[in-house]
Amino acid sequence: MNILRNFSLKKYNTFGIDAKAARFVSVASIDDLRQLIGSSIYKSGKSLVLGCGSNILFRGDFNGLIISMDIKGMKMVEITDRHVILEVGAGEIWHDFVEACVKNKYYGLENLALIPGKVGAAPVQNIGAYGAEQDEFVYSVIGIDTASNEERELSKEECKFGYRESIFKNTLSGDFIITSVKYKLNKQETLNLSYKELEQEISKFVVVEPSAEALFNAVCRLRKRILCDPLNLGNAGSFFKNPEINEDTFESLKESFSDIPGYESGDRIKIPAAWLIEQTGWKGKRYGNAGVSARHALVLVNFGNATGQEIYDLSEQIIASVDDLFGIQLDREVNVVE
Ligand SMILES: Cc1cc2nc3c(=O)[nH]c(=O)nc-3n(C[C@H](O)[C@H](O)[C@H](O)COP(=O)(O)OP(=O)(O)OC[C@H]3O[C@@H](n4cnc5c(N)ncnc54)[C@H](O)[C@@H]3O)c2cc1C
To answer: Residue 83 belongs to what domain range?
Structure first.
C-alpha cells in the first residue's frame, strides 16, 4: 500500500475544495484494508473513508488518514425464479452498478440512476431519489468492524435505515468500513412511477407499457436536465435535509404562510427545505466565492475558489435565516469534515 502525504483532495470531493490530507491511501482489497487497520498509521490518528466525496464538505485540511475505498467486483450470490441477490464491491461506482443491473434485467434500482458516488456510501445516507430509496433493495451490508478488525455482515434491519439515515451515520460512525453490499433485486419488472415528474417524463417517449429501461433513461434525462453538474460548478447535491415538524406546528405556520407546502411522513409533516430557503431570499445569492444555486435553493455551490469554511459559513447563515423566519431548524445532509 502506498501512503501519500500532504495530498490534495481537490479532485476527491465534488465541491472541488482544495483541502489537503496529511495522509492518503487507496484500498483495493479486504486484505489490504485489514492490514491497514492493524497498522500503527491507522491506530495513531483519525481517519475517514472516502468514496467520490460527493456528500462531503472539507471545512479545512484533514489532519489524518483518508482511506479511498477502491474495492471492486460484483458477483451473484443467489438466484431464484423471482429474485437475484448480487454482492457488489464498495468501490464500484453506483451508477455503473445500476446500469449493469438494468442491462442484465435485474430490476428495482432504476429510480436511483445517476446518483453520484460509490456503492459503499449508498447505505451510509440511504440514498434516495424520485420516490425510491436504496434500502428497499438492500439484503445486507458487509464490512470490517474497526475495533476487532473482523468482518461483519449486517442484515437490512440491523442497518436501521431511515430518511437519509442509517446506523453507519450514527452508532457505527467511524467504527465500520463497508466493503460490499448485497442487493436483492427483482427478475420481474415492477416500476416505481410514484413521482409525478418522472411519470410525465416517461410518458413523453413511451406510448405502450413503459419498461425498466425506459424508466432508467427517463431518470437519466431528468437528472441531466435539472441537476447542477459538479464538473461545471462544485456542489454536493442537496446540502440540507427536508425538515419534519409536527402537525400543530404546521397548522400554526399556515396562519402566517398560507402557501407553505407539507407532505405527510408517518405522523409528521415534511417541509421542502428548498421552499423555506427560497422564502428567506437566499436562492441565487452569492457569498464570497460560494453561493446558493440560482436553479436550486438546496444546492450550495463553489464558484471556483471557495474554501470549505466559506461554504460552511454560508450554510450557517442559511440555517439562521430559516430559523428566524419559520422557527424551523435545518439539518445538513452533507457530512462536514473537520
Ligand atoms: C450533483 C449531486 C446530486 C446528488 N443527488 C443525490 C440524490 O438524488 N439522492 C441522494 O441520496 N444523494 C444525492 N447526492 C449525494 C451523494 O451522491 C450520495 O450521498 C452518495 O451516496 C455519496 O457517495 P460518495 O461515494 O461520494 O460518498 P462520500 O461523499 O465520499 O462519503 C459520504 C459519507 O459516507 C462515508 N463513507 C463512504 N464510503 C464508505 C464506506 N465504504 N464505509 C463507511 N463509510 C463510508 C464517508 O466517510 C462520508 O461520511 C448527490 C450529490 C451530488 C454532487
So the answer is: 74-226
Place of cell 464558484: 303
Q: Is 221 a catalytic residue?
A: no
The whole-model pTM stands at: 0.95
Show the beta-strand stretches assigned E in the chain. 4-8, 20-27, 47-50, 56-58, 62-69, 74-79, 83-89, 128-129, 132-133, 138-145, 150-155, 176-186, 234-235, 244-245, 263-265, 268-270, 286-287, 290-292, 300-302, 335-337
For ligand 1, atom 2, name the residue with the nearest CA. Answer: 237
Residues 134 and 81 in one domain: yes
Cα dist from 319 to 106, 248, 282, 325, 332, whole Å: 41, 22, 11, 10, 9
The answer on 311 and 263 residing in a single domain is yes
Q: Which of 23, 133, 140, 164 is catalytic?
A: 164
**Ligand 1 mean position, distance from CA 239 (Å):** 12
| 333 among known catalytic residues | yes
Q: Are 236 and 312 in contact (CB under 8 A)?
A: no
Q: Could you give the CA distance from residue 314 to residue 288 in angstroms, rounded to a whole number?
A: 9
Partnered with residue 269 across adjacent β-strands are: 245, 264
Q: What is the pLDDT of residues 264-310, one digit of tens each?
A: 988 999 999 999 999 999 999 999 999 999 999 999 999 999 999 99
